[in-house]
Specification:
Number of strands: 12
Order of helices and strands: HEHHEEEEEEHEEEHEE
Helix content: 10-25%
Number of helices: 5
CATH class of the largest domain: Alpha Beta
Largest sheet: 9 strands, mixed
Distance between the termini: 119 Å
Length: 242
């Protein structure tokens, strides 16, 4: 019995089969200190007694993490950590800050507008109170996310434009707008009780038809729906007399 007890202690004591190394992959969006806190206490623990599921759960709860896994290697005393981060698909600009948003609307990071970063479709929010409540781990509203991803994917070729760049903004006065150096296209407001973002595809087709053969003459386009739209012509200076 004494020998059995000794063997049990040998194999299950804190120094036996202790975790000596914690292997964490290089992460782009997730704070290293937060990862360390989630894995606190793992190093030095007996690998046979370590419960990995709670560690993986704490990692998965981090706002920038999509999923995580933790495994033990008994051969060399390593804790192998696997982290799949959320990846941004959209930029949401407020002032000089660009929030990076994943497909579920979760903000995974931010950067200054002048800083280098991933090239993403970006919407500039110019509404009063823009940016309130936004930060890493916060979520963009579902309607804004839906509209932003649809309009952010529109290219000049989609609307038959010769303009070098399209910019998407949202304002209190006009709602969503595609701006170029030459003209603006007002797509308007969307919401569960008003207009569905599903009409955007039709509005894009309507915009293309309104710009066809007259883009140089257009100053502003109003897209009331996916079938109803008009444009305001560019004012042509009158020739001076005499």
């Amino acid at each position: 019995m004494i020998a059995a007890g000794y063997l049990w202690t040998l194999f299950t004591g804190p120094s036996a089969f202790a975790i000596e190394h914690v292997d964490v992959p290089e992460l782009q969006w997730t704070d290293g200190a937060a990862v360390s806190a989630a894995l606190a206490g793992a190093a030095g623990t007996n690998a046979l007694r370590l419960e990995t599921a709670p560690l993986a759960g704490r990692l998965a709860d981090l706002p920038t993490v999509r999923s995580a896994g933790v495994a033990v290697s008994l051969l060399d005393g390593r804790l192998i950590v696997e982290v799949h981060e959320r990846e941004p698909i959209l930029g949401w600009r407020v002032g000089t800050t660009v929030f990076l948003v994943d497909p579920e609307g979760v903000i995974v990071g931010s950067r200054d507008v002048s800083a280098a970063g991933p090239t993403l479709p970006t919407v500039e929010d110019r509404r009063d109170g823009a940016g309130a409540g936004l930060g890493i781990g916060a979520r963009l509203g579902p309607t804004d996310l839906d509209v932003a991803t649809r309009l952010g994917s529109v290219s000049a070729a989609d609307i038959g434009s010769r303009q070098p760049a399209l910019k998407v903004i949202v304002t209190d006065a006009d709602g969503y707008v595609i701006k170029t150096e030459a003209w603006d296209a007002v797509f308007g407001f969307y919401g569960p009780a008003t207009r569905s973002p599903e009409m955007i595809a039709g509005q894009v087709r309507l915009l293309r038809s309104l710009l066809a053969d007259r883009e140089a003459e257009v100053r502003r386009v109003i897209l009331a729906s996916d079938t109803d739209g008009t444009y305001v012509p560019r004012i042509t200076p009158r020739p001076s007399s005499g």
